[in-house]
């Protein structure tokens, strides 16, 4: 179970064995996780960081304050994931299966440093395809195709295509029955979120920030 400054999520899993909680010290927040795992999660610990001071507008200071989260599109199944908002996107990795997009991973830029996102979905025998952005290139929109494929519990992502300020990526996957373009005029995409099953992608959404003049 996870608690934030606004709400509570979970529980995730079943209550068995020993139970404990980790509380952030005063004026601190949980900023990262560490632990050990095998085929199950064996241990978990956290990193703390000071809570950013409020800006004049009452929002946390820093680059995330100006970010906006656009609703994810696709099927309503799978587990939610969220890479958060960064300064930009440096690389996109997309894996495909017989029915649709099975895997995504994004590499971001934050404070001039490369920040790899987590794996979402499952890799197949086919190596993931990559779309690498040039310096000063940023993603302005993503086209999402999704469909209800026979044998799937919900609609799945069948194709992703990325538009930047310089070009358009090749389509990763096949066109589906439904198509939507995620974008915000005058903004760039700086993060992704969505839902994924064990071996398929169900939803994709984005975080956007105003393009610096």
From TrEMBL:
<dbReference type="InterPro" id="IPR033734">
    <property type="entry name" value="Jacalin-like_lectin_dom_plant"/>
</dbReference>
<dbReference type="GO" id="GO:0030246">
    <property type="term" value="F:carbohydrate binding"/>
</dbReference>
<feature type="domain" description="Jacalin-type lectin">
    <location>
        <begin position="1"/>
        <end position="50"/>
    </location>
</feature>
<comment type="similarity">
    <text>Belongs to the jacalin lectin family.</text>
</comment>
<feature type="compositionally biased region" description="Low complexity">
    <location>
        <begin position="55"/>
        <end position="67"/>
    </location>
</feature>
<dbReference type="InterPro" id="IPR036404">
    <property type="entry name" value="Jacalin-like_lectin_dom_sf"/>
</dbReference>
<protein>
    <recommendedName>
        <fullName>Jacalin-type lectin domain-containing protein</fullName>
    </recommendedName>
</protein>
<feature type="region of interest" description="Disordered">
    <location>
        <begin position="55"/>
        <end position="85"/>
    </location>
</feature>
<keyword id="KW-0430">Lectin</keyword>
<feature type="region of interest" description="Disordered">
    <location>
        <begin position="1"/>
        <end position="21"/>
    </location>
</feature>
<feature type="domain" description="Jacalin-type lectin">
    <location>
        <begin position="67"/>
        <end position="210"/>
    </location>
</feature>
<dbReference type="Pfam" id="PF01419">
    <property type="entry name" value="Jacalin"/>
</dbReference>
<dbReference type="InterPro" id="IPR001229">
    <property type="entry name" value="Jacalin-like_lectin_dom"/>
</dbReference>
């Amino acid at each position: 179970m996870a608690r934030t400054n606004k709400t509570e999520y979970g529980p995730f899993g079943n209550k068995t064995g020993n139970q404990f909680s980790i509380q952030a010290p005063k004026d601190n927040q949980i900023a990262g996780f560490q632990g050990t795992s095998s085929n199950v999660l064996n241990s978990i610990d956290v990193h703390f960081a000071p809570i950013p001071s409020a800006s004049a507008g009452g929002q946390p200071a820093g680059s995330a304050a100006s970010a906006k989260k656009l609703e994810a599109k696709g099927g309503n199944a799978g587990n939610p994931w969220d890479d958060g908002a960064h300064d930009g996107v440096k690389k996109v990795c997309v894996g495909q299966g017989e029915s649709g997009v099975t895997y995504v991973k994004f590499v971001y830029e934050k404070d001039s440093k490369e920040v790899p996102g987590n794996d979402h979905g499952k890799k197949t025998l086919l190596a993931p395809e990559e779309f690498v952005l040039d310096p000063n290139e940023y993603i302005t929109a993503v086209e999402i195709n999704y469909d209800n494929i026979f044998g799937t519990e919900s609609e799945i992502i069948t194709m992703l295509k990325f538009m930047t300020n310089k070009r358009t990526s090749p389509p990763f996957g096949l066109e589906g029955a439904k198509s939507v373009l995620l974008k915000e005029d005058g903004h760039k995409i700086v993060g992704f979120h969505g839902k994924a099953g064990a071996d398929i992608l169900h939803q994709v959404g984005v975080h956007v920030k105003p393009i610096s003049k």
